[in-house]
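Changelog note: in this version the structure field was regenerated for every chain. One regenerated record is shown below for reference.
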Amino acid sequence: MPRELENIVESIIFASPEGASTKEITRCVRGAVVTAREANGENADEAITRFADVVEPQVAAAIAHLNAIYEETGRAFCLVERPAGWRIMSRAEFSPWVRELFPDKKPARLTPSALETLAIIAYRQPITKSSIEAVRGVSVDGPIQALLDRNVVRIAGRADLPGRPLLYETTDVFLEHFGIKTVDELPNSSELRSVKLPEPEPVTPPAAPDPQAELGLEGGSAEQPAASKPRKKGKGKKASTEREAATAEAATESVPGSGPTGSPPEANAPDVEWSPSEEPESEGEPTPEDQEPPFPHDPDSQPGAPPAEA
């Protein structure tokens, strides 16, 4: 049974494009038994049904024995466990010849800043960009974008912090490149994860507006008195001008000898007394002191005196 199981395990790993884990291989072996019994019932092939009770430790022992056989016989390949599962891979000493099979694929190199950023993410994942910048002291926008483009880092979600910043973690490509199954296999993993790192400065949210202040402003604006309307002066001034013209015309007609051939009105014009009762009560009308008389007065004349001789 062990030899037959080793051949079955080897065939499953060889046919798997991305690799097969120990659990997956065990499921395939026992699943074949169930399928055979459903199709043929009691007449199912005994070569298949005999593996109905296979468990994961037996599969792991078969893989270890296969690797020992490959090593003893000097085979150019071996079984290697990767994050996706077990894979058949060529040995490292044959890389110069295998590399010629892919001439267009050149080794991808990362800058020192990208390598430092990748190391921080690998040991402290998941981590935010601000936490990485607090450790390095510079912006990491460029290095993070380069790592995302090479598929060695991915977005793991958002942190439960103000602003909901993105979280970054490594991918299976990173594990395969460094030949490890989990990040716990990194050098000094437990020690470096316990080191206290600088923390980013907390983001202070903007202060909320004071509702009492807003109510005070609104109340103050509502209590402001309405501005008084400016007085209109045009109507009263027009009425006063018409009244002055009528008075001047009546005074001219009552003076004897007035006209083109008579004596000048300055000499024969009687004095006209100002009557406050005739003052129009319109707003903005000029005061008596500001009005000019309709015609000149004789300074020597008295009220009720006869007009001076020409």
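Spot check on this record: The radius of gyration is 55 Å. The chain has a mean pLDDT of 76.
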